[in-house]
Design a protein that fits this description.
Blueprint (H helix, E strand, L loop, with lengths): L1 H4 L4 H8 L2 H16 L2 E2 L7 H5 L7 E5 L24 H14 L10 H6 L1 E5 L4 E2 L11 H13 L6 E5 H5 L11 E5 L16 H11 L14
């Protein structure tokens, strides 16, 4: 497991995998992947950690569980694989970027370039059964991702935490360092985006904070496909 990351997450993940909760989760997942269609592919589960080293994290965006339709999920919250149509929540995220920053967003929803700039796109649950939203909740992933949030929040440098929706806002209590910035609003889902997500300007607020702390801002319009 440690060799998967080869970055600042390695020791953390190795320690977590030795915990009883994680061993139980791993046995559950082995059976699930054998008997059902699970997203993302098992080799993509930890892409958020693989592509955003702990020392490079500038921004954390919390999602819930992965997209559950075919070819969408690949281990980054809100992101989809190249050539896959934008899901409704990501469409609304792009609309808010365009309104907030005055830029034109592409039709591609592959957000790896954000991850490589230091945006940790973390779902609170990392796997899901096909077409069954929330099917892997309360199986142990929340413990793992809570520990990730706490690990990032313990960093002694300014970091932005973007919390969309009530589930994400529940994590606010884990972010105790006053040097961090917490931005919260309604979720970008079509069911709630008009109730406080649109017009919240999280992207300019994030960059203003980063610049004020002498940190390179995020180029939110950079959606680069390899």
């Amino acid at each position: 497991m440690k060799d998967i990351f080869k970055n600042g997450w390695s020791d953390f993940v190795l320690a977590e995998t030795q915990q009883p909760y994680y061993k139980k989760l791993r046995e559950f997942l082995k059976d699930e992947y054998k008997t059902k269609t699970i997203y993302p592919d098992m080799f993509d589960i930890f892409n958020a950690l693989r592509w955003t080293d702990l020392k490079d994290v500038k921004v954390v965006i919390l999602g819930q569980d992965p997209y559950h339709d075919e070819n969408q999920a690949h281990g980054l919250a809100f992101s989809v694989k190249p050539e896959v149509a934008l899901p409704p929540s990501l469409k609304n995220i792009y609309k808010e970027i365009e309104s907030d920053l005055g830029v034109q967003m592409p039709k591609c929803g592959y957000l790896k370039s954000w991850a490589e700039q230091g945006v940790l796109l973390l779902n609170t649950v990392l796997t899901v059964v096909a077409h069954r939203a929330g099917s892997h909740q309360n199986m142990g992933w929340e413990i793992f991702t809570n520990h990730i949030i706490e690990k990032v929040a313990a960093e002694d440098r300014p970091i932005v935490f973007i919390l969309w929706g009530n589930k994400a806002k529940e994590k606010m209590e884990k972010i105790k360092n006053p040097s961090h910035l917490i931005i919260s609003s309604a979720h970008p889902s079509p069911l709630s985006a008009s109730r406080g997500f649109f017009g919240s300007r999280p992207f300019s607020k994030t960059n203003d904070f980063l610049i004020a702390n002498n940190i390179e801002p995020i180029d939110w319009s950079d959606i680069t496909v390899e």
